[in-house]
């Protein structure tokens, strides 16, 4: 007697991993409901076939029996509409109970369906009519003693139908609330993922622009304080300032364009990776930064692109940090790694004589967060008079 959830009030999409089980439960429940509704009709048909011609007087009452069977079949035929019109179907199946015993099954199923909506102003009168008609039919067609028995059994069946309907309705509401909460949680997870990606893009913006602007500051400083530059050197420095400013604008435009796209899954390719480090070193050397490189990375072509991208940004930010806090001092960059052994990045420079000013550690904070999200570790400390930044990134075999 369990009823289907109303398809208009329950989301059509099943919970992940629950669709197949829910489909089986619904199909099984539907079969059981129709079997229960058809039980009185089936028993009446079997009795009619078994006792026809054997029991005196049964043939004279055959038209009435056929009418009874017809009402039971009509009640079963109405059941598919009980979800759309539960009130009308319940009334239509309960009313013939006064004249038909085979319609009791469809009437109980319709009452259970009506109870799933928990509208007591409809359930109470229909249940009362069902019980009164059932008792009156037994009193009229059988005996007063039978009416008492029918009243007790009918009340029990009626109570079971209503409780079953209330349970199904409550479970339907619980599942709808659970699905809504799950959908909301999934939406929050999606938004969190988008926010996380945008934070990473913002970190990319910081790394790129900090690198470019520090180069601009170095070129501009050379133009401002060096008075022995020839006309050609001054021209080259000015062109370098122009080129770096132009690249800064292009990179900023690319990153901001990525932030504006709602369906963005990552930065536009190509992004700099470990293979672009040599160009980075040439660029900073051209700007006047002295960099010594010790690169012993093996099988670098097997390094995942994402790890290579993180490695590039770590080296870039480390060089930027050295230009900020130890301008003009030599920098040593060491890279080592192999598949299965991880990637080691160590950048060191003479420790500055003074502490970093306000905001001076933000680049290191960003690097630490980037390295953590990549599954690696980052440390920085002053060792033997040198500031050493060391990052370790995973590199699976």
From TrEMBL:
Lineage, broadest ranks: Bacteria, Bacillati, Actinomycetota, Actinomycetes, Streptosporangiales
This protein's name: histidine kinase
Stored InterPro entries: HATPase_C_sf, Sensor_HK_TwoCompSys, Sig_transdc_His_kin_sub3_dim/P
Reaction equations catalysed: ATP + protein L-histidine = ADP + protein N-phospho-L-histidine
Presence of keyword Transferase: yes
Residues spanning the membrane: 31-51, 63-81, 87-111, 123-142, 148-169
Organism whose genome encodes this protein: Nonomuraea terrae
EC identifiers of the protein: 2.7.13.3
Pfam families: HisKA_3
């Amino acid at each position: 007697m369990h009823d289907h959830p109303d398809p208009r009030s329950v989301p059509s999409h099943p919970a992940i991993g629950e669709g197949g089980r829910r489909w089986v439960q619904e199909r099984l429940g539907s079969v059981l409901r129709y079997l229960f509704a058809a039980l009185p009709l089936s028993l009446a048909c079997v009795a009619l076939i078994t006792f026809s011609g054997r029991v005196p007087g049964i043939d004279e009452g055959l038209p009435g029996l056929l009418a009874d069977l017809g009402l039971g079949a009509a009640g079963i035929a109405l059941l598919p509409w009980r979800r759309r019109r539960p009130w009308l179907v319940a009334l239509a199946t309960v009313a013939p109970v006064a004249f038909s015993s085979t319609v009791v099954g469809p009437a109980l199923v319709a009452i259970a369906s009506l109870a799933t909506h928990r509208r007591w102003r409809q359930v109470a009168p229909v249940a009362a009519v069902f019980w009164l008609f059932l008792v009156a039919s037994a009193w009229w067609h059988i005996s007063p003693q039978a009416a008492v028995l029918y009243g007790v059994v009918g009340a029990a069946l009626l109570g079971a139908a209503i409780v079953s309907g209330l349970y199904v309705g409550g479970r339907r509401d619980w599942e709808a609330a659970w699905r809504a909460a799950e959908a909301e949680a999934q939406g929050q997870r999606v938004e969190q993922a988008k926010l996380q990606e945008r934070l990473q893009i913002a970190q990319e913006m910081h790394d790129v622009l900090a690198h470019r602007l520090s180069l601009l500051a170095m070129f501009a400083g050379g133009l401002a304080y060096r008075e022995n530059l020839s006309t050609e050197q001054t021209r080259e420095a000015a062109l370098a300032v122009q080129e770096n400013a132009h690249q800064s604008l292009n990179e900023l435009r690319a990153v901001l364009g990525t932030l504006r796209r709602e369906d963005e899954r990552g930065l536009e390719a190509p992004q700099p990776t470990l293979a672009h480090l040599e160009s980075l070193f040439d660029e900073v050397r051209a700007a006047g930064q002295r960099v010594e490189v010790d690169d012993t990375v093996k099988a670098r072509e097997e390094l995942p692109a994402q790890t290579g991208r993180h490695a590039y940004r770590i080296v870039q930010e480390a060089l930027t940090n050295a230009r900020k806090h130890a301008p003009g001092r030599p920098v040593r960059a060491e890279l080592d790694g192999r598949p299965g052994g991880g990637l080691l990045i160590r950048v060191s420079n003479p420790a500055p004589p003074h502490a970093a000013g306000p905001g001076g550690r933000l680049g290191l904070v960003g690097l630490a967060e980037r390295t953590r999200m990549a599954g690696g570790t980052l440390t920085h400390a002053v060792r033997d008079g040198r500031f050493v930044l060391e990052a370790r990134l995973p590199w699976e075999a």
